[in-house]
Amino acid sequence: MLRIKNGWCILGEKPILQGITTEFKDEAITALIGPSGGGKSTLLKCLSGVLPLDTGEVRSHTDSISLLFQEGALFDSISVIDNVAFPLVQGRVPVATLPKSERTFVEEKCLKILERVGLKEAINKLPGQLSGGMRRRASLARALVTEPEILLLDDPTAGLDPVASSVIMQLIVDVYNEYKPTTIICSHDLRRLLPISEYVLALSDGHIVYDGKRTELGNKAKPELHHFVSCRYDWT
To answer: Is residue 39 part of a domain?
Structure first.
């Protein structure tokens, strides 16, 4: 169970979220969509606890929540494997300095997920030595390494070419099919996002403009949202 009730978030003097109330379906993929500046990234940060609400509350049945930031947010001064290990060891990096038994466990977990994202040969590189697509895959590996019960992904394919975008989305689907984390994905790439999503939450100007099944979006979307989606996704 993950829900937000009457959530308000104000940055500076601007309200970004304005009384958001919704509950996300367990073990389902929800597409978080809407025009730029509508509050999507802010909502994910509030759901994860990275950003506090000004009023309202977020409730979850678990603390096992992982957030992939839109910009990746890798630490430039440490290696790929240490970036991925960060949530496992609460920042006690480099991994090589851990006690042997713990180091073996952490390295195995990290190498397994890095192999899944195609970065096993880049474990000792710094983020600055990676391409944009590789950095995004490293960020995704860090988000997945703890096998979170709730997975929040902020624009995981932003700035990637079509091939890299397809690889990332397929990896997300594969991981979801393995253990069914409650997954919320924010993206403007609706051609790839909507087909894999069961539910849709749409935000505009900090308000919910659609909250329901993806299959009903075409019939129930408000006109402004219908235009936004139609420009990016073939309803047929």
So the answer is: yes
Rounded to two decimals, what is the model's pTM? 0.92
SS3 168: helix
Contacts of 58 (CB under 8 A, 6+ apart): 2, 3, 4, 5, 7, 46, 47, 49
Encode pLDDT of 183-199 as tens digits: 999 998 899 999 999 99
Tens of pLDDT, residue by residue over 9-43, are 999 889 999 999 999 999 999 999 999 899 999 99
Q: Is residue 12 helix, strand or coil? A: coil
How far CA 161 is from CA of 32, 59, 175, in Å, comes to 21, 36, 21
Structural domain total, the chain: 2
Pairing assessment for the beta strands 55-60 and 2-11 based on DSSP bridges: antiparallel
In this structure, are 158 and 232 located in the same domain?
A: yes
Q: Which residues pair with 18 in a beta bridge?
A: 8
SS3 state at 46: helix
